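Schema walk-through. Below, the input block comes first and the output block second. Nothing else is stored per chain. Lengths vary across the set, and this one has 183 residues.
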Amino acid sequence: MNPNTTNPARKTRTNRWTGRLAAVALLALCSCATSYGAKGLFGGFEETRIDATTMRVHFQGNGFTSKQKVETYTLLRCAELTQEAGYDWFLIVDGDTELNDTQVHSGSFNQSHTSGVAGVNSLGNVNYGETTNGWTSPSTTFNVRKYDASVIMKMFRGEKPAEAHNGYVAAEIVQYLGAQVKR
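--- output ---
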């Protein structure tokens, strides 16, 4: 065999492994829960100021982030914003956590190689033909469950009243929940 030519079988095996390694790398990159931080490609928090003391805070998780973690991150972000604005406590005026169930479809992959063949049979006739070999990976469908939490909060100065049942002292939330959050 000429060392300057490429072996089609080896090329097919190499392409197959390259595709598999790329799929594994993509899966590893995407298989982490959303980290605590500003909204990016894999989720995170964002906020909108409604007035001087009112904000809407939203946290979007990915398919690996639990409902509890999404709600914890949302509450922590509310506390941080309250402190940053110079307030002591906040009241959750309205809030909801939604489950977004979606289906993801991966396409099928095909890899093939075709080569020409020529031969002479016993009668002296020349025959031409082609051979094709390859592989096909079937498409796959899987469910992705993502939680989103959204709250409207109002910030206050002073001591939190005992009757403020949806009220939280910002410093306590930052102290206790902040210690649980991986940044």
